[in-house]
Design goal:
alpha/beta, four-stranded antiparallel beta sheet, 37% helix, six-stranded mixed beta sheet, 254 residues, homodimer
């Protein structure tokens, strides 16, 4: 078994992602947002709208990482089963939340779109013991249960919910990155990069091929939370690139 | 434990996805491509460039699903460890593949970009017992080991490799979808949709909110491989939408 690991996992829930109908962008957004407050994302999973699958993933991820961020499945339709699955995963019950019910009831009473019907009432179902996550856009809240933050799948709503999550997280030192790009293939700088990785074992170095204006190149990225150390590594990367005949393009954070 | 499941899983390998630096698009592409030949994607995972994580994910997914499609980590740099991890996951060895070595050697000899150096030679490391997956774009091949198809992370290369994978798959009936959209919120059609789901339990129905030109609406999607049945469901969806006061926009495949 894999050991308990510091950091976060992301759990994307929804058939529409697995069918390729919808392009997930929440994973990247959450990852960058967490990186800015020093919490690395260690794993991401996408699971279908099937209770056993969601429950198993929640248990696996919440047992292993400090935090889990889920997106999707908290709307009013029959395939929105995330809240029930979270309750099942944590072995707790679920029922209509009086405060949420009242707030949503008032909201829908003021809108001429069919009222606070039974389907919309489903969005007031919150597991026992959960704390709410505010939804400033469309009112129906997310919730936190244990170390799992349950958020909407719609990107704008998810992003707004994250702002209410921030105060609950123990932030680390912000993770930043420096990038040195060069119009050379990965194979031309791989040996130099590997040597630098041995010199700076504490700074993960990555290598990412790109194509710009028809020219191929490689971005070398150093990540960490010690900006002085990253500046030193950036200089070392630029020196290495020159040594193999390349012209380093220092791109700051990236 | 979750039981063995028909269908495929996708395994995306790379720190750059988990940091949010790179937006994964391979998952959606593979999912749509597999859907066209009738193989549903049941799960997707993103793991970092860490051997224990990759090995554990490969074992979990290859033991549970018919096929696993991995992307990333087969380039020439020190963080490209996928081939070694696949060998470890399957308990087999790995070494330079003579045919691949010869082909890459000839390719790099003809290009003025530093020759077939030690880093590039890493791309000729193929696990014992693997069959190669052709790479018509940049020569360095992917490979199939057991039920796992190991492909590049660069989208254009991955897409080209898939063409060489197709003949190895046992295709099902193509999965298609019909979509009925309406400028109503999910909550207005949820009850009707749930009732239809009970009438057509064999056809998964999904509901996806959208915003177009500042107007909010919902797309109702029915999926399956029986086009006559889908046409019937499409009519039923349109009738249901009209019954709650909406104007159905039938959008065919989607």
């Amino acid at each position: 078994m894999l050991s308990r690991t510091r950091g976060a996992a992301i759990l994307v829930i929804g058939d529409e992602i697995l069918s390729g109908r919808t392009q997930d962008t929440n994973t990247g957004y959450i990852a960058r947002w967490l990186g800015q407050i020093g919490i690395p994302v260690r794993e991401a999973r996408v699971v279908p709208d099937i209770e056993a699958e969601i429950v198993a993933a929640v248990r696996a991820l919440s047992g292993r990482y400090d935090y889990v961020f889920s997106t999707g499945g908290i709307g009013p339709t029959h395939d929105d089963i995330t809240a029930d699955c979270m309750a099942a995963a944590f072995g707790t019950g679920i029922d209509l939340h009086p405060g949420v019910f009242a707030a949503l009831s008032a909201r829908y009473a003021s809108m001429n779109i069919g009222g606070f019907n039974e389907a919309r009432q489903r969005m007031a179902r919150i597991p026992y013991g959960a704390s709410l996550i505010a939804n400033p856009l469309s009112a129906a809240p997310g919730f936190q249960l244990g170390n799992v933050f349950v958020m909407a799948g719609i990107p704008a709503v998810m992003q707004a919910m994250l702002e209410d999550v921030r105060r609950r997280l123990v932030a680390g030192r912000a993770l930043t990155a420096v990038t040195v790009s060069v119009f050379l293939g990965e194979g031309a700088i791989a040996a130099g990069l590997a040597a630098l990785q041995k010199t700076y074992p504490d700074v993960p170095l990555g290598s990412y091929p790109f194509s710009r204006d028809g020219r191929f190149g490689t971005s070398l990225v150093a990540r960490g939370n010690d900006t002085a150390r990253l500046a030193e590594v950036r200089e070392a990367l630029a020196t290495m690139v020159r040594a193999v005949g390349g012209e380093p393009l220092v791109e700051g954070a990236g």
